[in-house]
Amino acid sequence: MNIIVAGGDGFCGWPTALYLSKQGHKVSIIDSMVRRKIDNELHSNSLTPIASLQERVNRWEELTGNKITIYDGDLVHYDFLKEVLKQEQPDAFVHFAEQRSAPYSMIDREHAVYTQHNNVTGTLNVLFGIKEIVPDCHLIKLGTLGEYGTPNIPIEEGYLEIEHKGRKDVLPYPKQPNSFYHLSKVHDSHNITFACKIWGIRATDLHQGIVYGLDTEETKMDPILTNRLDYDDVFGTALNRFIIQSTIGHDLTVYGKGGQTRGFLNIKDTVRCIEIAAENPADKGELRVFNQFTEEFSVADLAAKVKRVAEDEGFEPQITNLENPRVELEDHFYHAENTKLKELGLEPHLLDDEVIREILETVVKHKDQVIETNILPKVSWK
Questions:
Q1: CA separation for the pair 69, 26 (Å, rounded)
Q2: What are the φ/ψ torsions at residue 85 (nearest 5 degrees)?
Q3: Which tens digits make up the pLDDT trace of 9-30?
Q4: Is 35 within a domain?
Q5: Which residue range(s) make up the domain with 270?
Q6: Is 185 a catalytic residue?
Q7: Which residues, listed in sequence order, are joined to residue 27 by a DSSP beta bridge?
Q8: Which is the catalytic residue, given 19, 48, 141, 185?
Q9: Which helix H or strand E contains 112, and what residues bound it?
Q10: One-character DSSP codes across 219-279
């Protein structure tokens, strides 16, 4: 297949592009390098040193003979996007190219507006581009489980059968987003639903959980191919933050009570889920929703797992509860369905001690790069 990976320089996009290329697909990357610019804005960094995208792609071609084409540009610029679509004529468009941080979207008005403009406008341009230039192209859009919030009923995969006043219907599952970032994803889902209905576009909306892990088989082939590792209070996940805190003598800082529960998956499963979606496209006019995660953990669960592994490695971390900078339920019911990808062949990699140990060993190797002032939360929802 001919596949475009938008956002192919990012944490999920880069290993996805390599994985699809290795499977024999023709891969192109669209990226504006904005994530690297945000590192400069926030005076932050990837803990792992990452090469430029051109260096990465050149090294991949040297190692495998597989060429990946780079298009340096932004999806909010429609003329640019149209030219890429005309040139590539893709079978699938994998859309990772969005501002992906809830805290970043909550910094202030400017960052909230940027997040919604970038994400919603970019996705609208992709929808119009597919309609006008490649109407049979399958849109594979990265959504988020965060669109659902934390309802007191099980979360279905995209749709819910409702009985009301003696009548039944199947409707999109209610959305209760918890940041301006998550709201942008809800707007995307609504726009994609509408485009599929009126234009017959085929789309898969992947409501992904929180991704952990660092490497795939492809990124481990050479240091130049190394994936990024985010740990700061804006882009870093709780798991990464806990692992880094455990190695630098810092308490593991749990926000609030730590009962916040979410879905998680390994980066190796992210790339496999994209392959499954690409090889099993939605029908014309169908918006298909997959809940893309493999396990559920609370923040307190993650802290306990990291503490155990870190102690096995000779560290002595303690767990501390901080005042939660977010406005969210800290004790709640949480259960999401995740059967569709498994039925199509996903064999999950689960979060065990060895995965945490592998990340910890990488952190120890690069911990002189840690900017400690970036670890504790500075962005408040209030």
A1: 9
A2: -65, -40
A3: 999 999 999 999 999 999 999 9
A4: yes
A5: 2-213+264-295+333-350
A6: yes
A7: 3, 68
A8: 185
A9: helix 109-116
A10: GGG-GGGPPP---STTT--HHHHHHHHHHTT--EEEETTS--EEEEEEHHHHHHHHHHHHH
Output the CA–CA distances (angstroms, integers) from residue 156 to 145, 171, 336, 340, in the order listed.
11, 11, 6, 11
Active site residue 64: no
pLDDT tens track for 72-117: 999 999 999 999 999 999 999 999 999 999 999 999 999 999 999 9
- 74: phi then psi, degrees, rounded to nearest 5: -120, 135
Domain-located, residue 134 = yes
From 144, 226, 270, 294, active-site residue: 144
Q: Is 327 exposed, middle or buried (0-12, 13-18, 19+ CB in 10 A)?
A: exposed
Count of domains observed in the chain: 1
Q: What number of other Cβ atoms are within 10 A of residue 254's Cβ? A: 23
Q: Judge whether 80 and 4 are in contact, CB under 8 Å.
A: no
Does 71 qualify as catalytic in the annotation? no
Catalytic residue among 181, 212, 231, 334: 181
Length of the chain: 382
pTM, to two decimals: 0.98
